[in-house]
Amino acid sequence: MLRFIKRSMQSVPYLSNLEEECMYDIIYSLETQKKSKGEILQRRGDDADELYFLQSGIIEVYTQFEKKEFVLERLFRGSIINYRTFFMEEQGVCGLRFAAPSILKALHKDRMNQICDKYPKSLGKTFNQYKFKISKEGKAIPLDYVMVLPSRITDKVKQTTRKKMLVGTEYKREFETRKAEFQRTQGRSMTEDEKKKYLESYIPNK
To answer: In terms of CB atoms within 10 Å, which end of the chain has fewer, N or C?
Structure first.
């Protein structure tokens, strides 16, 4: 668990470079929360006053429009939620619900402030600078999370990308062969309309 939290903290700007004592104060201040599938973590309009590290499970980020519900994102192990809104005293603009039994590590903003007071020259300074920067920008924070995809999904994305690249290479090679054959048999080059017709009829091998 320690390794997981340390790695996750590196994704939060004001938690990424802390002295060891301060880092462990934060880690041991985290509250473990176990959630069931379908349970609501945060509704739209709720106060976002806790920072969450998703240790296991899946969280759905969802919203409603014209009485229809839309799932915007699915968050997996290692994802971080509310790392900005929890200290801005803002309300959540999207709903958060568990799509599977899950375990969270939560840090309340009051406890965060206590730790900042204990380490004013490190965490306190970095945290206040980050809050000032966010406040000065004055931008809305509709989706406040760091998403981490599991390896099975990233591997699938890589495989899909590679397949598309291979299909593109296959198409170019086949198209050059077709053009050369057309030139040889017809004694002229393909017109733009003929090239377009070939492109529309091309079906790559699966």
So the answer is: C
pLDDT at residue 133, as a whole number:
86
Element (H, E) at 198: helix 192-201
Whether the Cβ atoms of residue 64 and residue 109 lie closer than 8 Å to each other:
no
The amino acid present at 57, given as its one-letter code, is G
Question: Which DSSP symbol is given to 91?
Answer: B
Find residue 96's DSSP bridge partners.
42, 61
Which residues of the chain are in CATH 2.60.120.10 domains? 2-148
Cα 154 → chain centroid: 12
Place of tokens 């899950």: 102
Q: Is the whole model's pTM more than 0.70, yes or no? A: no
- Give the class (CATH, top level) of 2-148: mainly beta
d(CA 29, CA 24): 8
Rounded Cα distance between 204 and 72, Å, is 32
User: Token pair of 185, please?
Assistant: 């048999």
Distance CA 80, CA 199 (A): 45
pLDDT tens-digit series, residues 45-62? 888 888 999 999 999 999
DSSP secondary structure code for residue 191 in this structure: P
Q: How many CB atoms lie within 10 A of CB 12?
A: 15
